[in-house]
Amino acid sequence: MKKYLFVITLLALVVMSSGCTTNQNQTNQSQIPTKTYAANGISFQYPDTWNLTDKSTANVTLITIKSPDVQITNGNATKGNLVLITKQAVPQGVNITTANITDMISSSLKKSGLNATNETVNIAGVTATKFSFTQTIQNATDNVWVIEFAKNNYLYSLIFVSVGEDLQTAKQNFDVFINSFKIE
Which of 26, 76, 106, 155 is most buried, judging by how many CB atoms fall within 10 Å of its CB? Predict the structure, then answer.
């Protein structure tokens, strides 16, 4: 259990710091104009009107992408869409699998009292679990999707948050990331 502590800590920090987000109205994923991010051994597409911030270091990749309508109050988003992507090396001697991660996330969400649903997704050549749940922070309801998986001795986290927007539209924008995410 001790060897998984960093994973649980990482997940908790990412979920707590993710805030909230919103989305633009698009009718079809293929009609969403995109830009491409390709660095730090990963690549993905994202809506071209969204703002990307890369605060990566030699040890950790940390990318935040926000829709242009994001509103943040007291450190929490009250409207808009936000995507947080992290990549971190798994410590030497620690054996982490996507199945371990799924079990840990499921357990953590249950302990937090969050009623999450899950579904299997294929991302970057890996079968992973996408967890979906709703949480309320400062009177704003966040719809959150979390995908975490391990590949090539790295742990990847993709957290999608939508606040105050149409969920179908948010899903279409978030699917742009999921369907294009690749590990170089």
Answer: 155
